[in-house]
Amino acid sequence: MARLALVDRHVDQQQLVADLYAAHRLSLVRLAVLLVDDVGAAEDVVHDVFAGLLKTRSLRDPDAALGYVRRAVVNRSRSALRRRRTARAYAPPHDTGPERPDDLAVLSEEHRTVLKALETLPERQREVLVLRYWSDLSEAEIADAMGISRGTVKSTASRALAALEQRMEGSR
Q1: Half-sphere exposure for 68 (CA within 13 Å, toward CB)
Q2: Taken in order 43, 75, 70, 34, is the CA torsion positive or negative?
Q3: Nearest to 107 by CA among 26, 27, 25, 33
Q4: Closest Cα partner for 144 from 60, 47, 70, 59?
Q5: Which residue from 40, 50, 154, 161 is spatially nearest to 146, judged by alpha carbons?
Q6: Would 77 disulfide with which of 35, 40, 51, 170, CB 3.0-4.6 Å?
Q7: Where are the domains of the chain?
Q8: What pLDDT, in 10s, does the model give residues 1-28?
Q9: How would you class 27 by CB atoms within 10 Å of its CB: exposed for 0-12, middle for 13-18, buried for 19 or more?
Q10: 102-172 matches 1-93 in CATH topology
């Protein structure tokens, strides 16, 4: 009887993860793309998070699962960036050549300017802005996802917006 209950919980867990994946995968990939700046790496980050979630025996609070997954995506993105920085330190940078015309056509000039300015911000400021304005999270959700206080989210966002505005004024 106890074995049957364990199997039922495992099936429920798999269904919860499958439902979460179906409902939020795209928004989580978009979040990761903005953090790691590479679609392939972003998809890997999200895939790894969901694969890890399937390996866990149970979610303690299924209602908080999305927040947990969002935090895991932010943390895995940070790890991916650290690995990338380490790899670049040991390998000489190479020129990737000009961007393809179809890549350039996707983004408007204004959007490219914002993204270029966003890349120059410190990591935490960039993460807060991405979570706030691209993922449309509240201050409380950002604080939870990043493991910082709401006050830190507010002050970081304020500094990041000021720095972003200054960088964009300088690029005109």
Answers
A1: 16
A2: negative
A3: 33
A4: 70
A5: 154
A6: 35
A7: 1-93, 102-172
A8: 444 444 445 567 788 888 999 999 999 9
A9: middle
A10: no
Contact status, residue 49 vs residue 8, Cβ threshold 8 Å: no
Cβ 35 vs Cβ 130: under 8 Å: yes
Q: Residues 106-127: what's their mean pLDDT?
A: 81
Burial (CB count within 10 angstroms: exposed 0-12, middle 13-18, buried 19+), residue 167: middle
Alpha helix ranges (H) inside 65-172: 65-90, 101-106, 109-119, 123-129, 139-146, 150-170
Distance CA 20, CA 39 (A): 20
Calculate the alpha carbon distances from 89 to 82, 84, 92 in Å: 11, 9, 7
Q: What is the mean pLDDT of the chain?
A: 81
Q: Is the pLDDT of residue 120 over 60?
A: yes
Residue 101 CB neighbours (<10 A): 7
Token pair for 111: 């959007």
CATH architecture of 1-93: Orthogonal Bundle (1.10)
Distance CA 160, CA 118 (A): 9
CATH 3.30.420.40 corresponds to the domain 102-172: no
CA atoms 144, 115, 46, 95: torsion sign: negative
